Amino acid sequence: MIEQNDILTVAEVANLIKARLEENFYGISVIGEISNFTAHISGHWYFTIKDNDAQLSCTMWKSFNTRIRKPANGDKVVLSGKVTMYVPRGTLQIDVRDLKPAGLGDLQIAFEKLKKKLSDEGLFDARFKKAIKKLPVRIGVVTAAGGAALRDMINVARRRFPLVEIVLTHAKVQGDGAAEEIVSSIEELNKLDNIDTIIVGRGGGSLEDLWAFNEEIVARAIFASRIPVVTGIGHEIDFTIADFVSDLRAPTPSAAMELSTPNQNDIINYISDFCNKNEKRVQERISLLHQKIDRQINSYSFRKPEGMINDKYQKLDNTFLRIQNFIDNRLNESGAKLNLLTSALENLDHRNVLKRGFTITRQDNKYIARSSQLNTGKSLEIIFYDGTTFIEKE
Amino acid sequence: MEAKSFEDSLRRLEQISGKLAAENTGLEESINLYEEGIILAKECYNKLKEAELKVINLRSGIEEIFNKNDEKGD
C-alpha cells in the first residue's frame, strides 16, 4: 500500500491508476453516440462515445475492429471493453473490444431469433458439415446472372482451375422472391447427378440487401442439399444465416470459388515434382543395381573363376613358351646342320677337283666316267678348271 | 481425357509415386511404372494448359466458353 507521505513519480501514479481502472472497469458495456470518429491508417479506430451529460475517449484496435462494420459519427452504439489509462498522456479511455448498433432493428431481431432457433435445432452443427471436393468436375453456382459476383467467380475459376465446368442457375439475390429463387436453384442443382459443389454467392450490400440469405427457407434448402454448399455472401464482415448453415463459409464470392477449386499451379507443381522425384528414384534404382552388379563381379566367388582362367592362361602361356623355345632350338639345330651339310656339299663340288688338276670328259652331253663309255670316233669335250676344250671328230 | 479421369490420373500418379518409393518394386516394374507416370503427367499437364473454362447457364441452356487469354479485368 502507498503510505501517505510517500513521494511517487508521475509514472508511478499513472500506472497505479491504470491498474486500479483495469481491475474495476473490466468487461463493461456502454451505450452512447459516436463522435469524432477517426479510422487511422494503421487500422486502429479512435472516437468518442457521448451522451447528453458526458463523454469518454475510445480506442478500438485493428485486431478487434476488422470484423466490425465501421460506424459513423452520430451512430447509437453499444460498446463493450475495459476502461484503461493512456499513461503517456494521462488520459482515460475505453479499450473497446466489441461494437454493436444500439437498439436492434426489426431485421436484426429476426436474424438473432432465427439464428438461435436453427442453432438449437442443430442445423449449424459441425457434424453435418460435408467435405468440399478438392478436384471438382462441375460446380453449381447460385447467383444473379450478369452480377459482379458471378463475373468474379468466373475469373477465379478460370485462373485457378479452368478444367472445371460451371453450371449456373440464376437466382435473384435481393428483393421480393429472391429467397424462393435461391431455394429452387439449390433444389434444381440437387436434381443433377454430376455437381460436386454448390456455391451460393452474392456481392456486398446492406443488411437489407443481403436479407434473402437470412431467410429460413434458404437456410433449410442449404441444410437439405445433398451436394456440399459453399457460401460467399457480402464481404468479410457480413455473416448471414446461410453462412452458418452452409458446409463452408467464405468471406466473398471470389473466396468461395477459391475454396471450391484447386490451384492449377499446385497441380502443375505436383506433376513436375512427380516427374523429377521419380526420375531420380528410377535412376537411383538403376545405379544401385549397377553398384550391386559391380560388387558381385568383384566379389570372391566371381573373382575365383576369373582367377582360374588367369591361371590357365598362365599355364597355356608357359606351355606355348616352352613349345616356342623347343621349336627355336630345333630351328637353330637345323641351321647348324644345314651349315654343316653345305660345307660338306661344297667339299663335294667337282670344281674343287678340277682346281686340283683333274678334268671332266663329256660326250653327247653326258659325263664320261669310264673309258668303256667313250666312243673314240666321236667329238668330245674336256672340261678343265679354267675352261673347256672341244675335240672335233668327223 | 475426360475431366473425371483427370482426378483418376492424379490419383494414379500418387499410386505410382508410392510404388516407385517402395523398396520391393523390381527394376522392370519400376521402369514400366515410371513410363506410365510420365505419360499420365504429360497428359494432365497438357489438359490443364489447354483447358478453357466452360459456363453452362442451366436456365437458358447457353454454354459460354471463357478463353484463358481474354481475361477480363477484375
Structure in a nutshell:
Chain A is 44% helix and 23% strand. With 394 residues, chain A is α/β, with parallel strands linked by helices. With 74 residues, chain B is an alpha+beta fold.
Plain-language structure description:
The complex is a heterodimer of chains A (394) and B (74). Chain A is α/β, with parallel strands linked by helices. Chain A folds into 4 domains: 10-103, Nucleic acid-binding proteins (OB fold (Dihydrolipoamide Acetyltransferase, E2P), Beta Barrel), CATH 2.40.50; 107-264, 3-Layer(aba) Sandwich (Rossmann fold); 287-332; 351-391, no CATH class. Chain A is 44% helix and 23% strand. In chain A, the strands form 3 sheets. In chain A, strands 1-2-3-5-4 form a 5-stranded mixed barrel. In chain A, strands 7-6-8-9-10 form a 5-stranded parallel β-sheet. Chain A is elongated and about 190 Å long. The N and C termini of chain A lie far apart (184 Å). The mean pLDDT of chain A is 87. Chain B is elongated, with a radius of gyration of 18 Å. The mean pLDDT of chain B is 79. Chain B has 2 helices and 2 strands, in the order ααββ. The relative contact order of chain B is 0.12. Chain B is an alpha+beta fold. In chain B, α1 runs antiparallel to α2 (27-50). The chains are: A alpha/beta (394), B alpha+beta (74). At the A-B interface, α4, β7 and α9 of A face α1, α2 and β1 of B.
Describe this protein with a few key phrases.
heterodimer, A: 394 residues, alpha/beta, Rossmann fold, 14 strands, B: 74 residues, alpha+beta, 58% helix, elongated
Strand order of the largest sheet of chain A: 1-2-3-5-4
Please identify the structural class of chain A as seen in this structure. alpha/beta
Characterize the main sheet of chain A.
5 strands, mixed, barrel
| Morphology of chain A | elongated
Number of domains of chain A: 4
Tally of DSSP helical segments of chain A: 11
What is the CA-based Rg of chain A, rounded?
59 Å
Estimate what percentage of residues of chain A fall within beta strands.
15-25%
The poorly predicted ranges of chain A are none
Q: Termini of chain B, distance in Å?
A: 31 Å
Largest interface between protein chains, with number of residues from each side: A-B, 38 and 35 residues
Name the helix and strand elements of chain B from N-terminus to C-terminus, one letter apiece: HHEE
